[in-house]
């Protein structure tokens, strides 16, 4: 079992291995503040705390997990409040929904418009954004060829992340050398 709060195991978006996750959180919050000012929106306390909680790790957080955490902290955690906060964060591009996990992931590239494609690790359940926007153009072109207007696309790839792969390799090496 992986420990939920082990930051050593988390991944920077696009970069595996140990990293200072506080840096991810600080950057995400700073970006959120800037974007909200630019868009004339308010990063209310509940929106900000929801974003922070989603950013606690690189594992997507479900709405009910978020609701429970906010309730613990004394926020108005009525489902409509929490869903409104999530809708705001989604619309602002600060988080993505990972459909197959029915959970939310903080976006590390919120300052540029993009589609979220995801690499989901079967082992540690960390999710990284798969930065491959060419796929988006290719999909639109292919769909258009068939007379289809694309409105939503969900690309979620599952497998083993670099950290888990390295651990599996290490374990195998220890196993053979012992
Ligand atoms: Zn991180
Ligand atoms: Zn993103
Ligand atoms: Zn992993």
TrEMBL record:
One of its GO terms (cellular component) is cytosol. GO terms for molecular function: DNA-binding transcription factor activity; transcription cis-regulatory region binding; zinc ion binding. The keyword Nucleus does not apply. Zn(2+) binds at residues 121, 124, 161, 164. It comes from the Bacteria. GO terms for biological process: negative regulation of DNA-templated transcription; regulation of secondary metabolite biosynthetic process. This is Transcriptional repressor.
């Amino acid at each position: 079992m992986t420990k939920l709060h082990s930051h050593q195991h988390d991944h920077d978006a696009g970069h595996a291995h140990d990293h200072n996750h506080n840096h991810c959180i600080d950057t995400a919050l700073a970006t959120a503040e800037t974007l909200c000012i630019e868009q004339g929106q308010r990063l209310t306390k509940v929106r900000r705390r929801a974003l922070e909680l989603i950013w606690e790790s690189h594992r997507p957080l479900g709405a009910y997990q978020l609701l429970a955490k906010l309730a613990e902290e004394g926020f108005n955690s009525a489902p409509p409040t929490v869903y409104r906060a999530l809708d705001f964060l989604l619309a602002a591009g600060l988080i993505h929904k990972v459909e197959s996990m029915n959970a939310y992931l903080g976006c590390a590239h919120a300052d540029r418009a993009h589609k979220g494609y995801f690499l989901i690790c079967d082992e540690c359940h960390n999710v990284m954004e798969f930065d491959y926007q060419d796929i988006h153009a290719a999909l639109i072109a292919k769909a258009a060829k068939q007379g289809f207007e694309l409105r939503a696309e969900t690309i979620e790839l599952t497998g083993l992340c670099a950290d888990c792969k390295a651990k599996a390799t290490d374990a195998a090496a220890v196993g053979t050398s012992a």
